[in-house]
Every structure is written in structure tokens, then in C-alpha cells.
Prior knowledge:
By secondary structure, the protein is an alpha+beta fold. It has helices at residues 115-130, 138-152, 167-178, 186-192, 197-208, 212-229, 234-240, 246-257, 261-270; strands at residues 13-14, 25-32, 36-41, 46-53, 56-60, 63-67, 72-75, 81-85, 89-96, 109-112, 155-157. The strands form two sheets. It has a six-stranded antiparallel sheet with strand order 2-9-4-7-10-11, with helices on one face. Strand 5 and strand 6 form a beta hairpin. 32% of the residues are buried.
Amino acid sequence: MPHKLQHDSSAFKQLPTNDEIARPLWLSFRDDPALSVYPAHGHAWGEFIYAFHGVMEVNINQVDYITPPPYGIWLPPNAQHSGLNRTAVSHGTLYVHEQLCGSMPKQAGILLSSSLVSAIFEHLKQNAQQQTLPEDSPEYQRLLQVMLDQLQQAQLVSSYLPHTRHPALKQILDYLHQHPSDNSALHMLAQRANMTERTLARCCLKELGMSLNEWRQRLKVIKAMSMLTEGKKVESIALDLGYANASAFINMFKRWMNLTPDQFRKLQRTA
């Protein structure tokens, strides 16, 4: 029997935002719990959000962006945005004073950052834990400048996994986020939101720019990336994502990423 799909925002913990930056280039690290949100806000500086573990979702000017490691989300100055963490996320944010944003993209999106950016993030995260290099030291600031130089050369792309504000379709997407192992046919998902299969198919193409099947595949890839970075076994990930065996999951992942899950995991370790 069809049942209503809901997203209960009251179950999400509200997190504090950074309302000022300490320096023209400033790096902040955070570990956010699952089911947490950053309320809608904006500020005069730009920021590059990089997730070490987990997948972050950021709503920018009413457009949803989602990105797995090792890439990050760029927000230009004065971009209204909010954040949602469905799972626990460890991330770092490079804050960039608006006077230093001249060569950065004017639009928000995902920056396909280089492995050097990832390496600097990892290095400075360790530094934050060990406190061996003061943040106001010339050496530390030079590393941030190198990171900014690299980001200025990075390619900007749109969201890998688009979202929607269409009420019925949003119910279905939220449900699939929470139940990625559900392989229900299109007509069954349509019934859950009191839609016909044809209406749902048209709605997906209009709102997402792709079929629901493609969207679900991308969702599984994103979920898999997050679980791989957490060290979960391939067999366990396959079951969590609704695959009968590891081989079927590996074939899907390789088709989308041109890498096997193990190859992706090794790249993460060396990034």
C-alpha cells in the first residue's frame, strides 16, 4: 500500500555558522554529526568547502549541490546558502576575502580540484591537530596561497546529483536517499507519491535533466564513495546499496567511475 514520504527537518540538529573570518585567507576544520544542518545565510567572502569523509549537500541560491571527496564546493561572495549532512561529515573550509576572489568563478559549483589541494588540506588538518605551525605564520599562509592558486585553475562543474523543490518528486528523492537499497520499479515509487509512472518520468526529465534510473545510479555511486572512504568492505557496501552480490556492484561502479571500488579507495589514500 502506498505511504507518504516525508523529510522531518525537526530531527536535524542546527549547527552554528562562521559569521566572520580571522584573515583574508583562513582555513577552518569541522566534524559534523549525521542529521545536521547549517541554516540559510550569506557573507561577503567566498568559500571552498572540502569533505574529507562523507558527502556534503549545500543549497546555494535555491539550487542544490552535492559532492563526494576528493572535490569541493565553491561559493562566491554573497551567495545565499544552507547545508545538510545526512551522514557524519568531516570537512575543511577555505575562506577567501572578496578582494582575493577576482580570479575565482563568479558562479557556485563543484571545483574539480587537484591532488595538491587535497594534500594541502590533509597536511593542514594534521597541523591543526598537532599545532606545529601557527596559522598566522608566513609558511602557513603560503600554503593557503598555493591552494588558492590551484583552485583558480580548477574546472567548475554543475552538481553531480541534482535535486528539486517539486514537492512530490522531492518526497521520492528524500526516500531514496534514506533507502538506497530500495530497487522498487518506477511505477511503485510513483504510487508512493500519488503520481502516475508517466507523470513521474516526465517530472524527472524536467526537474533533474535525467531519468530517475540514472539519478538512482548516481546516488548509489555517491553513497558508495562515502562508504569506501570510511573503509567499509565492498561486499557490505553492495548489500547496503541493494545489490545481490559484490560483482554487480563493482560492475556498476566501474561503469560510472572508470575505476573499480578498490582503485578508487587507493586513490583516496594517496590523494
